[in-house]
Specification:
single chain, alpha+beta, D-amino Acid Aminotransferase, Chain A, domain 2, 5-stranded mixed beta sheet, two-stranded antiparallel sheet, 4 helices
């Protein structure tokens, strides 16, 4: 992913278009984007969150990736929802160890991730709570 555009909300979507072209059909709703070091950065057209207990983790975007508006709002609203929020470098092992996983963007809100490869996650209480919050934010 292009480091010169790290963290910027921009209209250049060539990397995402190329990534989306890697799969055909409806078998996958979304794909994961990784940086050149293998860290998880985001979805093809979404930001990624992992839930561990009552803590949210989302990838740092200082090297590449797009800082979405809903991502920013969820990070800002997390303490009021009783959640700790952390921006951190995330690995595939972090993804596999998560209690819940979801992706989000300002168009569709929050999509729970229920499977990736051999891993499966429930649509848990934190994800449901934040879905309700996102619905309210996007409807206002």
């Amino acid at each position: 992913m292009q480091p010169a555009l790290a963290g910027l909300k921009h209209l250049n979507r060539l990397e995402q278009v190329l990534a989306r072209a890697e799969w055909q059909g409806s078998g996958y709703a979304e794909g994961l984007m990784r940086d050149t070091e293998g860290r998880i950065i985001e979805g093809v057209f979404s930001n990624l969150f992992l839930v561990k207990g009552q803590a949210l983790f989302t990838p740092g975007l200082s090297r590449c990736g797009v800082a979405g508006t809903l991502r920013a709002e969820l990070l800002a609203q997390a303490p009021a929802q009783g959640l700790q929020a952390e921006v951190a470098d995330l690995s595939i092992a972090d993804l596999h160890g998560a209690d819940e996983v979801f992706v989000c963007n300002g168009v569709y809100g929050i999509w729970p991730v229920v499977a990736c490869g051999d891993n499966q996650w429930p649509v848990g209480g934190v994800t449901r709570k934040l879905q309700r919050l996102a619905h309210t934010l996007l409807d206002s």
